[in-house]
Amino acid sequence: MSSPSNSAAAAAATAEKAPSRPVIGGALWIGYALACTGATLFATKAIIVKLAYAEGVDAETLLAVRMILSLPVYLAIGLHALMPSRRGPFDHVNSRLILRAALVGALGYWLSSYLDFKGLELISAQFERLILFTYPFFVMLFGAFFFRQPIKLKSLAAFTISYGGLLLLFLRDFSLLGEDAALGAGFVMGAGICFALYQLFAKTIILEMGPRLFTCVAMSAASVVVIVQFLLMHPMSQLVLTPHIWMLGVALAIGGTIVPSFFMNAALQRISAQANSMIGTLSPVITILLAVAILAEPLTGLDILAAVLVIVGVAVATLADRR
């Protein structure tokens, strides 16, 4: 029979090798803060994309610039995280787990981004953000259907409040757009569905391999797919762009991709996919404000009312998830 000290040592070793689990209590607010910061940074993406489109760049080229600039960072951090001395509790990471992360990354960061960028070619930044962030509905729906995750009544109330506000702007903007509105809206809705599935599939993988390594693997896989897609559709000469466009690409890569991707996946390690997605509904509000300040789009009383409803809905969802 082993001694208590040996048993304690064995238990400690097992605990070190076990995947980390979502934290509870006060540390849960760290997850909320990470999710809010990620949502804020992701909100800048549509603005930067619109500024680049005004320079004559198409979706495939801009997406390639974004990922060409992002890929070296993800590869460097990912290789560092794979070092045995850096794995910590995630030393069980294997090729199968990495392949799963790569496939989920392609779904969430390539297909979702590509559909979103195509939609932004046809509709406004504000309209895009409103449609894209219907994805929490799909997170709840797919989570209940595929993963047997419970849907709390307060979460449904939060959904009603937030999307009541988004619906106000959706109806107004839809009436102002031309014949491309339906196609653009369809692209962005597809992006939202892909992102919802990404949130749900990524959760378990993140708990197994950690948010840092998962982010690097997922984003590296997506970057490779994006670059291959560009090479199949365009000549290399199309990457000869003006310094201004490359600066927009740097802003898109760092502020709209690298930093928020790490923040969002770190949040997914701490809070549920439903809470993370509901907090993400702050992003349309931030995009509206940025569109007014940078793109000179108008701000009306209806915009302000919708923003208030979204914020109230996010607060209700956050409190419901914490309990």
What is shown here, in short?
The protein has 323 residues and is mainly α. It has 14 helices and no strands.
Explain the overall architecture.
This protein has 323 residues and is mainly alpha-helical. The chain has 14 helices and no strands. Helix 2 (28-53) runs antiparallel to helix 6 (125-132), helix 5 crosses helix 10 (211-233) and helix 7 (135-146) runs antiparallel to helix 12.
Number of helices: 14
Cα radius of gyration in angstroms = 21 Å
What's the shape?
Answer: globular
The poorly predicted ranges are 1-24
Structural class: mainly alpha
Largest sheet, in brief, is: none
* DSSP helix fraction: over 70%
Q: Report the average pLDDT across residues.
A: 80
Distance between the termini: 42 Å
Question: What percent strand?
Answer: under 5%
Oligomer: single chain
What is the helix/strand order? HHHHHHHHHHHHHH
